[in-house]
């Protein structure tokens, strides 16, 4: 197993960049897919955003300063690409990003890659009602089981603020799910 420092060094070298990039993709492919999928919802859109994420990583790896873990930097790019995708999609459709998110969730039932049931769909609808930051924190903590320290590096926010955001998000989701 290659260590992170070696991988970064190889990613930045002209002779090893291609091979190192394949290693990076293998390391993070599944985790990044699900991270992006929880944000953009659709499988096809996730593939597009994932591809954009890899392009951005490839083109900008020389800018990686090592102030955070490579994992955090890669996740930050994936998060930003996901949000950009949602906002661009909303702008194209001339709706708000919240409306775009709700439309994506409503389309989940026709997505052949969505294996959830009615409860999962309702959970996704509840998550969609959250403000952007709470949504991101909830998804990373609940679905990906990231530590607050990792989320803090990715979103560049204090752990205390993240814990508060997560707690508030959970309360809002509980309220949403217990309505009716």
From TrEMBL:
Tell me, what is an example of a GO biological process annotation in this record?
Answer: DNA-templated transcription initiation
Checking CDD domains in the record gives:
Sigma70_r4
Which residue range or ranges hold the RNA polymerase sigma-70 region domain? 24-90
GO MF annotation terms: DNA binding; sigma factor activity
InterPro entries reported in the protein's UniProt record:
RNA_pol_sigma-70-like, RNA_pol_sigma-70_dom, RNA_pol_sigma70_r2, RNA_pol_sigma70_r4_t2, RNA_pol_sigma_r2, RNA_pol_sigma_r3/r4-like, WH-like_DNA-bd_sf
Which keywords are on file for this protein? Sigma factor, Transcription, Transcription regulation
Start and end of every RNA polymerase sigma factor 70 region 4 type domain? 121-173
Which family is annotated?
Answer: Belongs to the sigma-70 factor family. ECF subfamily.
What name is this protein filed under?
Answer: RNA polymerase sigma factor
Q: Which organism is it from?
A: Mariniflexile litorale
